[in-house]
Design goal:
Helix content is 24%, strand content 31%. By secondary structure, the protein is of the alpha+beta class. The protein has one domain: Endonuclease/exonuclease/phosphatase (Deoxyribonuclease I, Chain A, 4-Layer Sandwich). The strands form two sheets. Strands 1, 2, 3, 4, 11, 12 and 13 form a seven-stranded mixed sheet that branches. Strands 5-6-7-8-10-9 form a six-stranded mixed sheet, covered by helices on one side. Helix 3 (152-172) links the parallel strand 7 (132-139) and strand 8.
Length: 242
Amino acid sequence: MKLITALVAAAAALVTMVSGASSAAAAGTEIAIGTHNSHYGDGSFERFAGVIGWQEVNDPPDREKLDSRLGAEYETFYPADGPAKAVPISWRVDRFTKVGAGSVRTHDGEAEVTPARYVNWVVLDVIGTDKSIVVVNTHFISGAWSGHPERQARWNTHYQVLNDTVAMLRQNHPQKPVFVVGDFNRAKAMPLPAPVKYVPVAGVGGVPIDQIYASTTVSHGDVARQPMWGSDHHAYKLLATI
């Protein structure tokens, strides 16, 4: 009888353990994705999100400032190609591990008009879970939709490369949610391969040029606008549960 009682108790404990684990998994993991145009490194590079896509980190002193400000709590992906380093991606080392990364040029630069532009991405495992995410960062040519229509061809080429890159990442990582951040230099939400979709900014009318997109397969609210922190652009942050 004692043996039967012990077995029943052990079985009940196992059911409780499995139920608790299932509940924890169902609760999901909250992460914060951010974007900030640093205005040629003038921004203070705040540690405001777990993963942050930066723009206009153009020169070595800008990157030294970023690394110094973030410190050992973050790692940053700088692609090999020099101009691509202007749109790096940083992540908290206690929350994420990089398992993949890449960069593609969208179009060449032109003196007095634009540097060469890029789409950069990282694949990150979420430490302590079986979950991973893909984060894409980019910065489009300026002025194409505000006074320089001759630049629209470059903007459109960049958009096609971004679209193709997101499609490729979705195909290669079908189970991983994709987040796209960056300075789009166009106040319009753009379609990207499903299920990646623009996320509106809370309390802000219209669409800002700094944007965040997220897979609709994850739970999230609206984007929150943050301070400028020394830049001429606001930072933006999205909280998502994966």
